[in-house]
Automatic annotation (TrEMBL):
An annotated Gene Ontology molecular function: ATP binding
Organism listed in the record: Streptomyces adustus
Alphabetical list of PANTHER family matching this protein: BETA-CITRYLGLUTAMATE SYNTHASE B-RELATED, RIBOSOMAL PROTEIN S6 MODIFICATION PROTEIN
Top-rank taxon, per record: Bacteria
Record keywords, A-Z: ATP-binding, Ligase, Nucleotide-binding
A GO CC term assigned to this protein in UniProt: cytoplasm
Pfam families: R2K_3
Upper taxonomic lineage: Bacteria, Bacillati, Actinomycetota, Actinomycetes, Kitasatosporales
Residue span(s) of domain ATP-grasp: 118-309
Protein name as it appears in the record: Alpha-L-glutamate ligase
UniProt-listed InterPro entries: ATP-grasp, R2K_3
């Protein structure tokens, strides 16, 4: 059987570097690198074109002299503020014979816009901290929300990334600063009651759980020495890797429920174990850190290959025994 052709479409201006993990995963599983394409070509002002051809999607990008008919399309590492620009292209990826996971614009929008996520969780009964959505509020409105939430809250933009523009607020002065900050940026924002997710030694902590096709494939706990700073690794939190079996069952259940609620087959879910378990957010395209090539990137690409096999009616695209063996730490075995 010929090796599948995989197109990896990502934004090369992103600093997260997920595309490098995914490219390596493609080569590990197929023996060949992916065809890399700049996602910006398929945005509203781009010159790239996707044309359905016999049920498959031909990708034509004149600026890159690319004309390819891939078996699989992997769309990843698109920054939240730019995702809406790819909505029309995403609709093409939803064609029945195009193999591409988690690329529907509706699900992306629900998970990216946190006000919509809050609404969806409330509808589906997914546990979350009490949250108020604010849009250019007057001082009195913001203060009323702050008081209602107990005077210990986190403020975050409706659309954001990496914990940027997120603040822990415990005083009226801090609330005024946040109100002015979001007003200057013309951003809607949320106030959420603090989850009290602080360890006995004073570290803020939360969990990032990777869900793929309704099951947990990997998790990590984030330990943040600065309790007033978001628990993102890019903001100084230390990741501690966990196997799915090491994750508290309640968090695994919540992560799967949250992913299903927003309509994604793959996501990185941020949660706290306090308050009986609560979900903070669902990340459409979670960033990878060291040690997650085999534990996250490889399973994600393998899911695409399995979908291709199902479409073709093959038992499998590549023999499982030919794939790299992994040790318990997620590294390649010798």
């Amino acid at each position: 059987m010929s090796r599948p052709c995989i197109a990896l479409i990502a934004d090369p201006t992103s600093t997260e570097g997920c595309r490098e993990y995914l490219a390596e995963a493609v080569e590990l599983l197929t023996g060949a690198p992916p065809v890399r394409i700049d996602a910006r070509h398929f945005g509203a002002r781009g010159t790239g074109r996707g044309v359905l051809e016999g049920g498959r999607l031909r990708l034509h990008v004149p600026q890159e002299e690319t004309d390819v008919l891939p078996d699989v399309v992997v769309l990843y590492e698109i920054q939240p503020h730019h995702r809406h620009e790819l909505a029309a292209f995403q609709c093409l990826l939803e064609a029945p014979e195009v193999v591409s996971l988690g690329t529907g614009p509706a699900a992306w929008r629900t998970a990216t816009q946190k006000d919509l996520t809050v609404e969806r969780f409330a509808r589906d009964g997914v546990a979350q901290m009490e949250t108020v959505v604010l849009s250019r509020p007057e001082r009195r409105e913001a203060a009323a929300a702050f008081d209602r939430l107990g005077g210990d809250v986190w403020a975050r933009p409706v659309v954001g990334t990496g914990g940027n523009d997120t603040f822990h607020i415990t005083t009226g002065a801090q609330l005024d600063d946040a109100t002015h900050f979001y007003a200057r940026r013309g951003s809607d924002w949320l106030l959420s009651r603090d989850a009290g997710n602080v360890t006995a030694d004073g570290m803020r902590h939360q969990f990032r759980v990777f869900v793929l096709d309704g099951r947990v494939v990997h998790a990590r706990e984030h330990l943040q020495p600065e309790p007033d700073t978001p628990c993102n690794t890019c903001r100084g939190a230390t990741p501690v890797h966990m196997t799915p079996q090491e994750l508290p069952p309640r968090l695994a259940e919540l992560a799967v429920a949250a992913t299903e609620s927003v309509g994604l087959p793959f996501a990185g879910v941020d949660l706290a174990v306090e308050n009986g378990g609560v979900v903070f957010e669902v990340n459409v395209q979670p960033a990878f850190v060291d040690g997650e090539l085999q534990t996250v990137a490889v399973p994600y690409i393998q899911a695409h290959l399995d979908a291709l096999a199902l479409l073709r009616g093959d038992r499998q695209v590549l023999p499982h025994q030919a794939r790299p063996a992994l040790d318990r730490g997620g590294q390649l075995s010798a």
